[in-house]
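Example S7 (C-alpha cells).
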C-alpha cells in the first residue's frame, strides 16, 4: 500500500493532547503485576487496552496465562503486505519509595522541564508511554486512511517486570496466532533527545536469591557471639570476594566464553558518548567498574554481577543484640553474548562451595534468566526503521547496545523464530524503576510519528 504519511503526521501533531489524555488514562491504573494485591488493577489495565484496540478496529482479547493475562489483538493488512508483531508490557514496577515522589505515582502530572513538557507517573516510559506510541500510530493511520498498510498483531504481556515467568509457555502455545515477519519493540532508549537509536544488542540476565543458614535459631550475640558462625558476617565476607581490585568478577569461568564482538565494539568505542551527563543523571562524576574498559563497554558489552539487596538479623528501631539464624541477598548478573546463564549459575555454586564454612548451608534460587541478544544489522526491516527514523528526526539513528534486558526479545526469537526491531524513545534520565519516572512529551510525539512512518515504510516492502 502506498498511502502518504504526511497527512498522518499533521493529524498526530494536532491530536497530541488527546494522545496524552489516553496515555494518562492508562497510567492511572496501578498495574503492578508483581504484587498480588494489585491483581484487579493489573487486569483492569489489560481490559483497558483490549477496549482501546477494539475501538481502533482490532480484533482484541485477553489470553489466560498461569500469571497475568496477555493482551492479543489482530488487524488485517492489504493482500501480500508484511505482517508485523508489536510487543510491549502493560505491567509496571512497584512505585516505592512513595515519599520520594513529587506527585502521586498513579496520578499522571504534566510538568515543565528543560526540554518542554513531560509526563510524570509510574510506567510513563516503561512501558505504557512507549506501547501507546504504536497504538496511537495505528489510530492515526485508521483515522486518516481508514486502513493499516501492513497486517498487525499486538502482543502485550503483564509480567515483564517480574521476569516474564509465563512467557515461554505462552509463546509456545500461541505460536501460530503470533506468527509474523518481524517483531517491533519500543522499550529502549534514544541516543539523546534529538538523536534516535535502534538497539542491536541487549544484555541478558541471571537473577539469583541466596540464603545462607547458620544456627538453627537466632542467638544472643553476647551469650553465643564469638563461638558460632554468623550468617551475616559470612555472607558479606563471601560476597565481598565477588570482585577483585580490578573490578573483575571472581565467579569461576565467568569470562571464559565471551564472544568477540569485533567491529561492533570498535563502532561503539568511536561514538561520542556524553559520559559526564550520563553520570550526572545519577549524581556521580566518575565511572566505576571493570578496569581497562570505557563506560560504553561497561554498560553494553561487558558482563556484570551486582548485589541488588541484602538482609538478615535485626534492622528495626533501636538495638537488638542478635546473631541471626540466616542471611540473604539478591544478585543480578548482566550477561553478554557467549555467556550461558546455567553455566554461570553453576560457577557461582562452585564459588560459594569453596567459601562455605562446614556448619553452614545455603539455598540458591533462580528468579529469572535469559541470554544476551544480538540482532542482525542489515535486514530490510531494520533498514525500514532506519529510514523511518531518519524521516522524522532528520538524522540517521545510531545502532546501539543496551545494558538492560527484555526477556521477550530472546523468547520471541526462540519460540516464533522472528527477530525484533528495538526502536525505543526513552532517555537515560527518565528514572525508570525509580521515583518520579517521566517521559518527555517530545519523545512521546516523535515516537508516535516514527511508528507512523515505520508503518508506511513497512507497507512498501
Ligand atoms: N525497559 C526495560 C529494559 C531497558 C531499560 C532497556 C532501559 C533499555 C533501556 C525493561 O522493562 C526492564 O526493566 N527489564 C528488566 C528485566 C527483568 C525484570 C527480567 C531489567 O532489565 O532489569
Ligand atoms: Mn522495566
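Recovered sequence:
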Amino acid at each position: 500500500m502506498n498511502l502518504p504519511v504526511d497527512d498522518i503526521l499533521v493529524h498526530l501533531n494536532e491530536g497530541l493532547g488527546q494522545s496524552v489524555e489516553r496515555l494518562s488514562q492508562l497510567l492511572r491504573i496501578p498495574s503492578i503485576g508483581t504484587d498480588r494485591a494489585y491483581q484487579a488493577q493489573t487486569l483492569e489495565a489489560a481490559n483497558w487496552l483490549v477496549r482501546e484496540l477494539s475501538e481502533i478496529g482490532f480484533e482484541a482479547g485477553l489470553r489466560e496465562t498461569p500469571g497475568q493475562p496477555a493482551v492479543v489483538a489482530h488487524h488485517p493488512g492489504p493482500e501480500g503486505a508484511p505482517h508485523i508483531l508489536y510487543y510491549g508490557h502493560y505491567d509496571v514496577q512497584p512505585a516505592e519509595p512513595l515519599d520520594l515522589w513529587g506527585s502521586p505515582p498513579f496520578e499522571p502530572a504534566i510538568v515543565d522541564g528543560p526540554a518542554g513538557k513531560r509526563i510524570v507517573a509510574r510506567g510513563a516510559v516503561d512501558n505504557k508511554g512507549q506501547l501507546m506510541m504504536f497504538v496511537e500510530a495505528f489510530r492515526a493511520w485508521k483515522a486518516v486512511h481508514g486502513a493499516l498498510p501492513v497486517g498487525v498483531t499486538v502482543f502485550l504481556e503483564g509480567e515483564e517486570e517480574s521476569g516474564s515467568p509465563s512467557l515461554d509457555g505462552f509463546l509456545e502455545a500461541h505460536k501460530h496466532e503470533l506468527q509474523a515477519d518481524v517483531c517491533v519493540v519500543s522499550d529502549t532508549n534514544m541516543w539523546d533527545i534529538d538523536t534516535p537509536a535502534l538497539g542491536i544488542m541487549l544484555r541478558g540476565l541471571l537473577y539469583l536469591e541466596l540464603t545462607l543458614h547458620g544456627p538453627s535459631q537466632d542467638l544472643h550475640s553476647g551469650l553465643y557471639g564469638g563461638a558460632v558462625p554468623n550468617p551475616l558476617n559470612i555472607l558479606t565476607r563471601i560476597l565481598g570476594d565477588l570482585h577483585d581490585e580490578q573490578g573483575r568478577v571472581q565467579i569461576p569461568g565467568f569470562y571464559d566464553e565471551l564472544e568477540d564482538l569485533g567491529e561492533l565494539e570498535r563502532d561503539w568505542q568511536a561514538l561520542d558518548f556524553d559520559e559526564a551527563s550520563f553520570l550526572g543523571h545519577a549524581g556521580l562524576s566518575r565511572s566505576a567498574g571493570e578496569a581497562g574498559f570505557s563506560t560504553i563497554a561497561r554498560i553494553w558489552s561487558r558482563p556484570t554481577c551486582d548485589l541488588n539487596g541484602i538482609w538478615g538479623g535485626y534492622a528495626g528501631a533501636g538495638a537488638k543484640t542478635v546473631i541471626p539464624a540466616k542471611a540473604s541477598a539478591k544478585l543480578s548478573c548482566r550477561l553478554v553474548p557467549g555467556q550461558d546463564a546455567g553455566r554461570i549459575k553453576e560457577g557461582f555454586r562452585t564459588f560459594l562451595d569453596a567459601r562455605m564454612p562446614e556448619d553452614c548451608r545455603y539455598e540458591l534460587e533462580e528468579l529469572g534468566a535469559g541470554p544476551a541478544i544480538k540482532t542482525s544489522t542489515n535486514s530490510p526491516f531494520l533498514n525500514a526503521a532506519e529510514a523511518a527514523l531518519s524521516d522524522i528526526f532528520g538524522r540517521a539513528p545510531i545502532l546501539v547496545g543496551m545494558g538492560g534486558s527484555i526477556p521477550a526479545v530472546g523468547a520471541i526469537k526462540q519460540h516464533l523464530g522472528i527477530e525484533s526491531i528495538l526502536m525505543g524513545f526513552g532517555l537515560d534520565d527518565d528514572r525508570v524503576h525509580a521515583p518520579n519516572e517521566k517521559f518527555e512529551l517530545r519523545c512521546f510525539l516523535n515516537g508516535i510519528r516514527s511508528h507512523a512512518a515505520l508503518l508506511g515504510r513497512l507497507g512498501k516492502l
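Notes on this example. The mean pLDDT is 97.
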